[in-house]
Fold this sequence. Notes:
Layout (H helix, E strand, L loop, with lengths): L35 E4 L9 H8 L5 H9 L4 E2 L2 E2 L11 E4 L6 H8 L6 H9 L1 E4 L3 E6 L31 E2 L8 E7 L2 H12 L4 E9 L6 E5 L2 E3 L8 E3 L8 E10 L3 E8 L6 H8 L8 H4 L15 E10 L2 E7 L4 H10 L20 H30 L42
Parallel strand pairs: 8-15
Antiparallel strand pairs: 1-4, 2-3, 2-4, 5-6, 6-8, 7-8, 9-14, 9-15, 10-13, 11-12, 13-14, 15-16
Amino acid sequence: MKPPVGKTPARRAAAPARKPMPAAPAAAIHGASEARQFTIDTDDDGIRLDRWFHRHLPDVNFNLVSRWARTGQIRLDGKRVGPGDRIAAGQTIRIPPSEVEPERSVAREMPKTLSDDQIAYAQSMVIHRDRAALVINKPPGLATQGGTRTHAHVDGLGEALMFDSAVRPRLVHRLDKDTSGVLLLARTPGSAAYFAKRFAGRNAKKIYWALVVGVPDIYSGLIELPLAKQPGTGGEKMHVDEENGQPSRTAYQVIERAGSRAAWVALQPFTGRTHQLRVHMAAIGHPIVGDGKYGGQNAFLTGTISRKMHLHARRLRIAHPDGPALDITAELPEHFAESMESLGFDLALGETAFADDTPEPATREVKKQQARAHAKTIRKERRGERRSRSTAAAPVGKGKPAGKAKPVTGGPAKPGGRTKPVTPRAAPKRTPRRP
Length: 435
C-alpha cells in the first residue's frame, strides 16, 4: 500500500526479511533484522558448511564464506563455525545479508522458457514422483544427456520436471539413446548423493527385457566378458577385450521363444559398462533385435518386426532415503509391444524373471578369496586335532615316586632336536662322627 502523498514518514518501518533464493532450503527467516536464518534440511545432514553454501547460495563464494566465518558473522546454533565444519539436520545457520544484487540472483535462477508442447511431453513421461525421487519412462530415441549433435535430451527438459520443487531434478544414472524404460532422477541434492552412492555400490537391482535373434542353447546363464572401447571409433563403440578390458558381468534368462527365430530374454547387469548388454548378447551370437551397431544386418528380423532396438529397462529396485525401497516398472514402448504381440509372447511370463532377491554371483576373485579362507579354516582345525592327539598320548595319573631321583641316561639325540649338555653333580662330602 502506497503512503499518502505529502505524508512521507521520517523513518521507514523495518523492511520484511528477505526471502531465500529459489535454490535455498525451505527455512524460515526470523525477525526484522537484515541477518538471515536457515534451518538445515535432512538432505544436508553431515555435509560441510562450505558445501551447503555451494548447494543453496551459489553466489556466495568460498572466500566470502571464509571471511564471514573468520569474523564471526556466521553462527551455527549461536556458535561460531568454520567453513570445513560439519552441519546437522535441525541446526540453524545465521548469515549476514547477501552482498550481491537481488535482481541478479533471481535472474540467474529463472528457468529457461519451454514450449507448452515440450512441457506436456516431459510431464507425460513421469510414472512416479515423491519428495526425493522422480521416475520417468524414457521413450526410445530420446537421449539422456546432450552432446555435439544431440539437442533433444532428458536433461534439457529439467525445468518441466521441477513441479513444486525449487531446483531442477538431477540424473543419477543413464540409459542409451535407443533404450527405453525406467530412468531415475533425484529431486534434491541430498537424494542425488544418496541414489548415486547406491548405483556406484551396485545396490540397485535393474531388470531389462530384450528380444534377441535366435535362441541361446543355455536358457539361463552368466556372461563374464571384459569390455573396452574399440580403437578407431572415438569411444563410440565397445568390444570384448580379454587383456585390457574392464570386468563386465550380465545374467540372462530366456523367458519364451518363437521357434528358432527369436527369443524374449530378461537381463540383469551386475556392472554398468557402456553398451554392456548389447555387446554381451552379440558376443554370444544372439544380438538384440534392431541393434545394427553390434549385430549388423543379422540383428534385423523380416516381416512385421520393427527395425528399432528392442531393449527396455523394465524394472528398477533401489533403496529410498525416506522409507521403503523404490520398486518401479515401466510399460513397453509401442514398437516393442507390437513385436511381442506379433511373435505371440505372453507378457505375464516376464514378471517371474529374476523375481527373487538372490545375491550377485561371486566373481573369480571372490571365489579365490573364499577358497583361501576355507583352506585356512581347515588348517586351523587340523592343528587343533594334532594338539589333542599329543595330549591324549601323554601319561596321565600317578606322579613321580617321592624320594627317588630320575636317572640321567645318555643316548642319541632326536633328529633335528637340540641337545643340552648335562653336568654331573658331585656327591656331598660326609664329615666323620667323633667317637
